[in-house]
Structure formats: C-alpha cells, structure tokens
Amino acid sequence: MELTEVSDIKMMSDIMQCRTKIQGVFSVIFLGFLLNAWSQDKHGSVVFFKENFEGFPRKEVNLRKWDAPIVADLDNDGYPDLVLNDHGLGISVCWNNQGSFSKPYDVIMGDLHGVAVGDFDFDGINEMVLSRGGGSGSNARNSKMYKVTAQREFLPLPDFKVPFEMMRGRTLKFYDGDQDGDLDLINFAFPSKEKKGQTENYIYENDAKGQLHLKATLPMIKADGQKTTLTDVNTDGIMDILLFGNDKVRLYLGNGDLTYEEKSALLPYEINDVTAISEIDFDNDGDFDLIMTRGKEFEIGETFFNEETLTWGFFTKRGDFQFNDLVVGDVLHMNNFQSQWPFNDAYYIGESAYQYQFIGETHSGKDIRLVNSDALGFPDVLNEEGGIHVGYVGNDSWRIAGSTWSPTTGTVIGVKEYPAYEHSKGLPDVLLENIKGKYVDVTEKANLLLIDHTVGVSVADFDNNGFQDVLMVRRGELVYENKSIMYLNQGDATFKQVHHHGIATSDIGAIGMAVEVLDYDLDGDVDVVIGNERGKWHLFENEILSNSYNKHIIVKVGNSPSGKATALGALVKVTGCKNDQLQRVGATGSVYSSSFNANMHFGLGLCKAPVKVNVTWSNGESINRTIKKGGKVFIGKK
To answer: What span, in angstroms and rounded, lies between the C-alpha atoms of 575 and 615?
Structure first.
C-alpha cells in the first residue's frame, strides 16, 4: 500500500477518527490490516501521533531554544509539568492541569542555559536550579535557585554559604554520585579566557544539611563541549559521565566519591560530531546501552531552495555575506529572519540604507514585507557596524547582504529560482551495546543505517510491546517540513524504521533541536514534545492502535523506604512473560539539563500474567512487588 507523502498524514488522521466509530476487537483487526503500510510493529500495534494544539497553548512566535524541555512534577500534584527554555529570552513553565497544559508562565527572563530539578534537601518540595549565561565572558554569574511550592510559587533561594562558582553557565544535572541517597550536582561552564586553561567543570557534593559544596572537577574541555549524559557503564551502581560536544566523546567512570577517571578506551573507537546521547536497554539484558545522534552544523553561507513552495532560506555567521540576487518581483516577503543582539534589529533598506523600524519586540523571528518603491537600490558601502542590508536592484530582483557575528537565518517566499547548493549528506548515528562494561558498535546489526544530520534523541516504548523504541530529531533544511525519525524495537535486538508516524513540524526557517518524551495525560501511552531552534514548541499525542489492547504499567516512584534516598536515579525493573525491562528515573536525552519524571512507563505487550516490579534506589535500598494487572502503582515512601 503506497501513498504519497502529501496524503499520508491526512488519510491516517481520517482513519484514526474512524476508530471512535468502530467498536470491539474487529476494529483493531480491521484497522491493523488497513494500516499495514504505516508505522506498525510485528505484533500489529500501529503507532501514530497527532499534534495537540488545544491542550498545549504556546507562544506563537519563532524563538531560539536551548536544549530539550525539562519534565518534572514541580508542584507534586501527580502530573508532569514542562519547563521550557527559550534561549536568551527566559525560562517558562507549562503547568499540567490533569492532562491539559496551561499557557507558559515566565519564571525568569534573560540568558539561561541548563536546568536541574530535584528535592536536594528532602523537605518534600522540589528545587529548581538554573544556569545563567555569562555574556560571552563579560558577565560571569552563578546559578540561580528556586523552591517550587504546591501553590505553584517560585521562591528564590539565597546562595549557599560558599556560593556556586561564577561562570558562563552551561550544564546542570542533579544525580546521586556517591550512593548516599541525596542529590549532588554537576555544574559545567563554557571555558572562560580569564581562567587561562583552568577547568570550570565543577561537581558539587550534598552535605545532607541543605548545602552543596564543591567537591571535584573534570578536566577542561574546549569551547562548547559541555554536553553530558549520565549512565552506569559497569552496573556497579555508581553513575558515570559521558562528556561531548565540541570534541570526541569522553567517558569518565565514577569512583563512588564524586571523583572520576577517564576510561574512553571502553568505547569501541573515537566518536566525533555527536549531538545527543540516551541510555537505552534495547535488548532487555539488564544493562544500559547507548544511542548516539550525530550531525554537523550548517556551513557559513549555506542556502536552501524548495522548488515546490518557491521558498528560499539561508544560514550564515562570523562575518560578511552576500547571496545571489533573488528574483521575486515587486514585493519581497521575508519570513522568520533571526539574528542575535546587537544585530537583531539592524536591518537597512535600499541604497540610502535607512534602518527599518520594527513594531514591538525583535527577539523572535521577524516577518517583513517590502515594496520595491520603498527599497530601491543597494549601497556601495555597507554599514561598518554590521547588520543586514536589503534592496531592490531591478529586473524583479532583490539583494541581501551584510555582516553578522552570531548565527543568522531567514527565508524568502516566492523566489522564482535559485542555484542549487551541494549540502552535506550527513553522518551515521551510532548504537553501542554494553557487553560486560565495554561498548561494541551494533548499529548495522540492529538495523539503524540511516545517514542524516540528527540533533536530538529520546527513547520510550511507543507501541507498548515491552521494548524501548528510538525517536530522533533531524537538523532539517529550513525551507522543508522537518520529519522526525522513528525506530520501533522488534523485540529481537533489531529495529524497524517507520515513516508514517505523524511527528513532523512545519516551522519554516527553524532548525531541529530537541525532543523529550512523557505520558502527559497518564493514559498509558508515551507522548512527545519537540522544540525547534528558531521555531516553536510542539506536543504530539500518541494515538496508538494496538492488538495488545494497549497494556501497560505506570510505576510512580517515591523516596526510598527509609526516606534517605530520593526517587531521582532509582532503577525500576519490570519482569513478566520472560521479559525484563529496565529504566532509570530521570534518564533523559537532554544534553545540558536533567528532568525528574517519577512516572515510569512500561509497555506489557501481549503479557497477561502478573508482573514483578523491583525498585532499587541509588543508596541500595530496594522493594519488590507483584502486580496482578496493568495500570498505575506507587512504590516507595511519600
């Protein structure tokens, strides 16, 4: 059953609506047959996502982003909330009102990066730590802290007796690095010239008295190399650190006292251009493997042209630029033009180079309509302070040139033609299997063979068959719809790429960046949130059709029985029908931040027998339970 890309999603949506009109087992069998060409696993479950606009009000402007959304039940009402970072604008929270999100509430404005959520003082109230940028080195600051009450108040906390280090903040991750049950903190910075090579990769120890003290450091890494993933390589219960970004992936094994030794030799080879890493037990053998996305940034001066929509786009940075003249006509429609301060409103028009006057804010993407009579000619000499020049140069043609420092992008609609640009084809992603604490590349063996530029990854059991699947976000090409990549786990240590899953965004002029998964309405299937750099946030709701009747279990993890260990970092193992599943509370594909979603979702597939659940907290405490049927269960101390 072959369908065109244009008709796929509409037809799928129509069929999904028919599901509500057909009842019983017959509907599952009939629709499973009808949808065989879609995203179906070998057990007959059909996975399709539909974007939710009503339950996810958002800022309807195109904004820069920083990392994946943070998932955490901030107000402890049982439903996971979302913390969103619109880079350079501020941090906002979307409160979850029992399965429907409120509009974003601004927590703090300014240049923010990593975010960490957890209860580090065991008072039953979540704390949120935010890493502040340092103005490219001119304004080093330390991290900001809040308590988040059940009344949804953000109460600023004072600095510790010895404050956090001043820095150009980047990465914040709560974790228990010394197995004592409380939350320690990773706090990494973009290296500052003033430090003259001294490391700014700080690790803070929790003294169990409400204070975090600087305990250790990791070696300095070049430039923007503070992307971090936490995992346990050798299953000794001690969290290990993967550090990557600007350089090859480096692996540091924990000693159990918040100090680390580099053991990158445990990786199969030197791995570069990694954009995100998630831990995943893809073969359900009781240890955590790694899935890595890889890709390169756009090249300076790279252009894109969609011949079907006649839309042209560009990317540039770090100096002067001038593109080929655009044949458009009398009117120029510029969409989602973005450049950072101080060039965010420095647009100069025509030969006289008068400055275009924007109405309202200029942080988000700018749409501009210019008539040729208001933009005649082009200056011989451009503004020496930089900016973007636009002018009508005759014969239906317009010229765009200028000089900026930070990444600058934009699109123009109605371009008649444009020379082709030879784009990089991309890089292969990597799946590493953990074999007794050493990694082996099994990418080809597992059927992950796609070549692309991918920038974000999350794992979840989207089809509830009892095995974790993989969702990747493409970098995209500005003037095209950006369709995510989904691999369904077949339960035999291989994956099947599915194409008609419905997770695609159409923010023209945006760049794919980040993805996170959560069951936001606690209905037993896992949903998806995507944030596009220079675009919008998107919530995709899982509309799974399953021959296994959507069987699942949601294990909500509390503190350990003694109350001495937080739920964050606890291991949850579900065993049933000869299948063992393993997940960690707080595991995330976020590269700069750490989530705290204590609602752990497990698909059960066709398993009808009772399942056993084991929760082991970071300090070694453990509880075993037998669950006779699916649904929701709480394990731990409230």
So the answer is: 12
Q: Encode 156-224 in three state secondary structure.
A: ECCCCCCCCCCEEEEEEEEECCCCCCCCEEEEEEECCHHHCCCCCEEEEEECCCCCEEEEEEECCCCCC
Q: What distance in Å separates the CA atoms of residue 430 and residue 451, rounded to the nearest whole number? A: 11
Residue 619: its pLDDT value, please?
A: 98
- Residue 115 DSSP label: E
Q: Which residues are within 8 A (CB) of 547 and not within 5 positions of it... i.e. 6 or more apart? A: 28, 29, 32, 43, 44, 45, 606
CA pair distance 430, 229, nearest whole angstrom: 15
pLDDT, one tens digit per residue, over 265-300 is 999 999 999 999 999 999 999 999 999 999 999 999
59 torsion bin: left (phi>0), alpha (psi -120 to 50), beta (else): beta
Angstrom distances, CA of residue 542 to CA of 272, 539, 563: 33, 10, 35
Tokens of 458: 């999350």
Whether residue 258 contacts residue 205, with contact meaning beta carbons closer than 8 Å, is answered with: yes
Give the containing element (helix H, strand E) for 545.
none
Residue whose tokens read 């998806």: 528
Residue 335: what are its φ and ψ, rounded to 5°?
Answer: -125, 140
Residue numbers in the chain where pLDDT is lower than 50:
1-11, 13, 15-16, 18-37, 549
> 303-342: buried (b, 16+ CB within 10 Å) or exposed (e) per residue?
bbbbeeebbbbbbbbeeebebebbebeeebbbbbbbbbee
pLDDT for 136 equals 63
What pLDDT does residue 638 have? Answer: 86
